[in-house]
């Protein structure tokens, strides 16, 4: 079962755009990750990393681009998560421009949990609460 | 029909990695784009942009991550392209670590051509030569 | 005369760090710019760009690094600005780690205003209010 | 005594530019670091990191921006280094646009060597050879 949608604001800065005038395509993956970190919580992510040696890695990303966000806009990232198995979180995430009637960018992101030796580990309960 | 595989080298610098010790996942999209630009040719891309107001936009990206590249490695990006329609190029791209037996990262990237007003335009012949 | 210090929060994400475990040195320039944009206001920056064709360019940057911020931290960026002449803004900016007793990074950043043809233009009054 | 100038090519990609049409100012710090890594050698940097736990950190950066590089250009990074003390390398680095008559960007970058606990360590001889 998927979680409620979490909402997260992202400001588009000079650094995010490219010379074509819109946000560089790879940067939406950064936005989506910032939003995921906000859902799980930076303190919990730091704790998992320092105490248990656990981190998250993107295993699969499918991204559809419909519209390009521009400098100065505040985007809303909407994120839903479900635990697909003991070893995989599936996130559905969207980036909305101000006043947009549909998402500018949509993504499905699969996350796994790995230890310091890059071995797969079960998803920690705190990360799946969504 | 898909083109022959083009090969392109990418060096992994400090800037590319994150604190988990491997290349940050969004950066492979940058590597794949550098490789596409090398195939089409920077001079031709500049000419299309300045003379015809044409640029390329990623419309869809599917990326599978199998292994994480590390600081100091030279990756090989292998790229194949086919023209899917007058309006879409489909690229299959892989990132190989040194001595790797399978690709560390695989992607399918769909490109469209747009003018300065973000209107779809036919793919220029020089960009589809692959 | 220099303005009061403006305070701006920055969250350190995976994307900001490198494999050495701390924030990649170039990224503090991004943080400082985000803070400057917050002082001037994104809406005003967009207006200057779209209506008057005016943007800002960094002309000089002096950055001193004392300590490295880590993943998961919330940094405070403290920014002061003074108008050095009709053509130059000088910013003093600092990045503070949580609980820090001195700034982790300090910078002096000189900004000029340029039009679309890269010609120098006087600093707009709205940008110098600080 | 300063070394001979090392020359290193950098290609300007979409990812490097911002919506003002030129290379984003922080990215020159990335270019300069790539050039420094090429001088020292990636293999030696990896060896120092893995075997001795040693890395390099930027302690001070002074950057002057005179001209903005554009998409599609190949820049030449010219780098000179001298060992200022047992604990500090000072690099003078410049970014030249194609056909430029003076550097587009000039920088003085001070590097220190640190171990995994962020303690200062003497500059390894292999890093000072320049």
Provide an overview of this structure.
Four copies of one chain form a homotetramer. Chain A has 130 residues and is an alpha+beta fold. The first copy, chain A, has one domain (6-128): Hotdog Thioesterase (Thiol Ester Dehydrase, Chain A, Roll). Chain A contains three helices and six strands, in the order βααβββββα. Chain A has helices spanning 27-40, 42-52, 125-128, and strands spanning 6-11, 55-65, 74-85, 88-96, 105-114, 120-121. In chain A, strands 1, 2, 3, 4, 5 and 6 form a six-stranded antiparallel beta sheet that branches. In chain A, strand 3 (74-85) and strand 4 form a beta hairpin. The first copy, chain A, is elongated. The mean pLDDT of chain A is 94. The interface between A and B is medium-sized, with 19 and 19 residues. Strand 2 of chain C pairs antiparallel with strand 2 (55-65) of chain D.
